[in-house]
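Dissemination and training. As part of the outreach component of the grant, students in the summer workshop were shown how a complex can be specified as a set of sequence lines and then modelled as a single object. The example used during the hands-on session is reproduced here so that future cohorts can follow it. Participants entered these lines:
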Amino acid sequence: MPRPQVPESQNQIDERTQLVLQEIVNSYIETTEPVGSRTLSKQLATPISPATIRNIMSDLAELGFLTQAHTSAGRIPTDKAFRYYVDSLAVADSLTEELQSSIQKLSAKGVSQVEELLSNTTKILAKLTQFACLVTAPKTAVSRLQRIEFIKVSTSKILVILVSKSGVVRNKFIEMTEKISQDFLNSISAFLNEQFRNRSFQEIRNQILESMVEDKERYDRLLAQAVRLGKKAFEVSDPPELYMDGHLNLLMSDAFGDRNDLRGLMSTFERKGQIMEVLDNTMQADGVRIYIGVENTHEGLRDCTLVTANYRNENNVLGTLGVIGPIHMDYQRIIPVVDYTSKILSQAITRHSYD
Amino acid sequence: MPRPQVPESQNQIDERTQLVLQEIVNSYIETTEPVGSRTLSKQLATPISPATIRNIMSDLAELGFLTQAHTSAGRIPTDKAFRYYVDSLAVADSLTEELQSSIQKLSAKGVSQVEELLSNTTKILAKLTQFACLVTAPKTAVSRLQRIEFIKVSTSKILVILVSKSGVVRNKFIEMTEKISQDFLNSISAFLNEQFRNRSFQEIRNQILESMVEDKERYDRLLAQAVRLGKKAFEVSDPPELYMDGHLNLLMSDAFGDRNDLRGLMSTFERKGQIMEVLDNTMQADGVRIYIGVENTHEGLRDCTLVTANYRNENNVLGTLGVIGPIHMDYQRIIPVVDYTSKILSQAITRHSYD
DNA sequence: ATTAGCACTTGCTCTCGTTGAGTGCTAACC
DNA sequence: GGTTAGCACTCAACGAGAGCAAGTGCTAAT
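and obtained this result:
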């Protein structure tokens, strides 16, 4: 999702015009009301008369930075204006101590599970931003194996436990027709642990599949069973895991005027798979990414802004977190929050890793 | 939450009046509009003139079954009317084949985890009812131990795996300061399995606590460690588990007119603990329970109806499921759906149990 | 006891001025 | 030539009033 490249010439606007645009966006972010020339004139530090501002506004409208609901209404910044604002005008606030310490709480005392860490992250983000917040679980494909165990829970059922380096535990039941003793299962897990420890799940999958096409005659019973169980254990059957919180904030906030707007958005949230896809698509990039309105490839998000950042351990990018809010969100506040949260989460999850 | 006991005399209303009341409620459920005497007269099978109906309505209003928004508006059934309707008038529809088979899908092919079963249940209920749907995870206190295992994942961290008879798997990390070998952990889990298999978590907790106050001199190292680890493993630190789906349906449906109504309701949903409590309180009773509007002890649900039923295996009630919808829901449809779902879930979860 | 008839109530909708914020243009100004 | 004051124009929002429709309550007749 590369940022739309606009010819420089088109956006070549002089300093004062820039100032006016900045102030319009600021004002709109603050009030969510169309902003008029008179009001703006008063707010502006440099005194410019309403008439002049009208001229400037007219220019900006022509360049596609402003629209108006009807001829006699004030101007509303377009998505393009917000993009411009975010790119060149906004100076990211440094976070207050208070915000910082709120965010640090995500890995507070006694958080022993990665799942809890991620869920805390969404909760804290939701609280601080008052928007919908998302965190993807560490990608299974790049996860590295820390430990695999098989536990026989009944004659035909085996519980598989997969622990990844990043601290994620996954449980899965396998049905077996033939009888296998717990001792034998232990041998198998010992073998698999020996063989695959520290390898990524993706690698393991591939290698197992390769093994299967090799000449089976060469296998002893242990190896054969290990391959069979391993295949089932590492199958990618798991639904994409996504932690989500605060989508009700959007409902509360009447930042989205129409109830129908909200409906569309909410049903997007219900399709977690789609949201996952959107987040995954942003994962290549680095740092905080911002997708404003029409810039969103996913149709359901065209009336929102998505702000995302990755989290990682020392070796790999593990997942993405993000917030979804109105296009007129307070970027100066939100961007650093997302940024800092991603860093704190990275730290926390690195501490949780086993090395 | 016992059903409010109303003196018989107050509700002693003759057959025709009953019929009118029934029809008013029916009509209101269908249209969500105040119902007037003229309209009702036409709908009624037995021909009664509008004027007579007005008299009857006047009586019903006096008895507290009907209200009206203003003098010249039609009548609206009160919560009391719905209670009367549900208790004595509604004949539960038998479920269509279609509905039955939809519900049976909750335990469709390849559902290997109880968690998935429960989550499927909320999804199916949400789809069929278009309301908010809830399922509580099997109560840990009454769960019986099937298997406990300890896996050492790093020098200081131990992963505990608790498998209950009902098929629920729970993971938990324990930090250990002193070093314990995996072999020793295996001995401990063997011991605990031997000792506590089939006992309820509550019993186990108690017994472990008892053991701790006993003379420690008598312990050998194994026993001492087993008690220590066991205590941590069975600690009730887990957040109450609640599966929820379809609360967005309520948002979509405009059955709740005001957006503020919805906000209150939604923030109730955000406090899962409160919802849990409400559901737990209903668990003593048997069969389908219905709490209409003011009958709800929890304030946030006073504008809703809650319909709940338990699910169970052969031995115990395991948890509760329920739907929350508008007071004017279609009871004839919803009640059998909840009832049947609870039965199918009971069956499915019984099949998942290990015996 | 039931019903027809009628006066009355009340919310809803439509229309039509009025108001006010805001624009666009033109002409004057520095 | 850029900036500003002034003025005519536009258009949503608000409010009052008329007409309408649905529904009630009461009274008198059946």
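Chain B has a mean pLDDT of 88. Students were then asked to discuss how this feature might be tested experimentally.
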